[in-house]
Design goal:
two-stranded antiparallel ribbon, alpha+beta, 4 helices, globular, single chain, Beta-Lactamase
């Protein structure tokens, strides 16, 4: 069972700020942060023309599928993926083994620039994720909680 990230408002603002900075510094069309369950945590850039819900879930599925491929090859997982299209390119990377960073870019940028800027953004996002985890522990839970069948039964049991 995969875990669900509990996101606090202050850290959500920090995530958006990191996405905004990465979008600007990498000359990206769009930047997304997605959890491994396919939930969109934050985005920046030109997202109005994109189906962000589908993009988030397909990205998580892509990470899961390539994780299976990595295991078949004796790897833990592939931390970075790159897809090159005719107009747009997609750079996907795992951040702290917890979330997925997606950058969509075109000819205005380059893979080298994107990779350079992703390194900085990854460090910043890892710091924010550590803050979320610490804050969740202060509240007596994990930032990465699992919802069990018993939790669902307890929630809907009296209906």
């Amino acid at each position: 069972m995969s875990s669900q990230l509990v996101l606090f408002e202050e850290e959500h603002k920090q995530i958006i700020a990191v996405c905004d900075g990465l979008s600007r510094d990498a000359s990206a069309k769009a930047v997304f942060l997605v959890d491994k369950n396919g939930q969109l945590l934050g985005s920046s850039g030109d997202t109005a023309s994109l189906d962000t819900t589908s993009l988030a879930s397909l990205t998580a599925g892509n990470i899961a599928a390539t994780g299976g491929l990595a295991q078949l090859l004796g790897e833990k997982e592939f931390g970075i993926q790159f897809h090159e299209g005719e107009r747009d390119n997609v750079h996907i990377s795992l951040v702290g083994q917890r979330v997925i960073l997606v950058i969509i870019f075109d000819e205005r940028s380059s893979l080298g620039l994107v990779r350079l800027r992703v390194r900085k953004a990854t460090r910043e996002l890892e710091r924010v994720l550590d803050q979320i985890e610490a804050k969740a522990k202060q509240h007596g839970s994990s930032a990465f909680t699992e919802i069990t069948d018993d939790d669902i039964d307890n929630l809907f049991g009296d209906m």
